Amino acid sequence: MAKVPVQFTLNGSEKAEFIESGTTLLHALRDKIGDTSPKGGCHQGTCGACSVIIDGELRLSCLTLAETCDGADIRTTAGLAEGGVLHPLQRAFLDAFATQCGFCTPGMIMAAKALLDRTPNPSREEVVEALSGNICRCTGYEPIIQAVLTAARADSQNAA
Amino acid sequence: MSLALQTFSTVKDANAALQASGTRYLGGGTLVVRAANEGDVSVSSLVRVTEPSLSAVSVSGGKARLGASVTMAAITRHPELAALAPAARAVGGPAIRNMATVGGNLFAPAPYGDFAVALLALNATVAVEDGEMPVETFLAGRDTSRAVVTAVSLSLPEAESFRFLKVSRVKPKGVSVLSIAALLQRTADGTVTSARIAHGCMADRSMRAKAAEKALLGCKLTPEEIAPALAVAGEDITPITDPIASAWYRAEVLPVHLGRLLLS
User: Which residues face B176 on adjacent strands?
Assistant: First the structure.
């Protein structure tokens, strides 16, 4: 199979790789570039564990072909902490015990970030809707919803 | 998995490439990449088109033209497509809606394809490179379709004439037990003068409930007057069985939900 060049920005850094045509973004990120924060759960678009933000929109990296991301700006959970300081969402997930086994967490955090980027002060219903494509088998969801609401409040206090 | 992706700038070139066996069109990826991930070896090559008109929405004179690559999320955000928003919002979660396209939904097998249910009730027109056809005709022949869908056109319904319902077990996002869309024209006193009803999950693709449509004519939307329509709602259906619900269950609850939609 012929290899094709792909270039994109990942968490602010330029990346260039030769990949096999038809490679999913999830596979390219994890196995080529070494960003293992997006998780491969169902590979069907059901679980949301592979969620990343591409050009400002939440997408599923398991159903996205890497070649279609040429020139895109891709954000993953691995790029959220700055200088060793956790992002407010990461801090809130830890404080609220919103991460247990941790497998869904990177997808949950990206889904939450996609929400807060557009809606900085969401209602509880908006948080539930924003996380509705992400499955968690540990927490029962409530701690995750609370963490997102807490992170939103922390962000708005910082901005004030 | 080994898939070769070919990118074309025009629909014409993509249509030519689609004639090769094992070749499928790549829209948002939520159907075809999923199939490849699940080991569908019938897919060996994917074709996509970057022509900008495929992603365009135009609304004028009460009519809308949705490019085939327009996403469900774009429809939910479009100020002039509010009538279609409930059906677009019924598709997947936020990430899926950012990917899933109007054109792709026409090919989604039950229990998916909720947006196509709305398009069928609205009597939309499906455009390919060399012509147009009613969505009902398109859906019936979709298994052998080898041409890229370029757009879907429809008359936007007045808010009170169009109703859409998706029933799922998980809220707010879940796979359909069934979905129903109804376009009803009524006189000032509420008598139904025309009815077009489509449902999802009652076959492998969206189908019209023609017996119920006929039975609703001349009725007012009261429990007594819609009863004959509900009694025939299950005519000619062959519901799917999947982990969400059995065919028997879907057939049993269809009249219940149709009744709720009509009386809402």
Answer: B168
Q: Which domain holds residue B144?
A: 54-155
Question: Omega of the bond prior to B111 within 30 degrees of 0, cis?
Answer: yes
Contact of B49 with B8, CB cutoff 8 Å: yes
One domain for residues B102 and B11? no
pLDDT of residue A70: 96
pLDDT band per the 50, 70, 90 thresholds, residue B159? confident
Q: Is residue A31 less than 8 Å (CB to CB) from chain B?
A: no
Alpha carbons B263 and B180: distance in angstroms, whole number: 13
Mean pLDDT of B79-96: 96
Question: A119 to chain B: which residues are within 8 Å by CB?
Answer: none
Q: Domain tally for chain B?
A: 3
Please name the residues in contact with B135: beta carbons below 8 A apart, sequence gap of 6 or more: B106, B116, B119, B120, B123, B124, B125, B126, B152
Is pLDDT above 90 for A156?
Answer: no
- Among B155, B185, B201, the domain boundary falls at B155
Task: Answer with the one of B155, B187, B211 that is the final residue of a domain.
Answer: B155
What is the arithmetic mean of pLDDT over B38-46? 93
User: Which one, of B225, B234, B245, lies nearest residue B176 by Cα?
Assistant: B245
Q: What is the pLDDT averaged over residues B50-59?
A: 96
The minimal CB distance from A133 to the residues B1, B37, B93 is found for B93
CA-nearest of A60, A148, A70 to B73 is A60
Q: What ipTM does the predicted assembly reach?
A: 0.95
Q: What is the DSSP letter of A69?
A: G
A159 pLDDT higher than 70: no
Interface of B with A (CB under 8 A): 1-5, 7, 26, 28-30, 33-34, 36-38, 46, 48, 73, 92-96, 98-99, 172-173
Residues B145 and B207 in one domain: no
**Model confidence at A155: pLDDT above 90:** no
Asked if the model's pLDDT at residue A154 lies above 60, the reply is: yes
CB–CB contact A64 B48 (8 Å): no
Minimal CA–CA distance to A28: which of A73, A55, A65? A65
User: What domains does chain A contain, in order, with CATH numbers?
Assistant: 3-78 (3.10.20.30), 88-159 (1.10.150.120)
pLDDT for res B104 = 97
Closest residue in B to A25 (Cα–Cα): B33
CATH of the domain at B253: 3.30.390.50
pTM of the model: 0.95
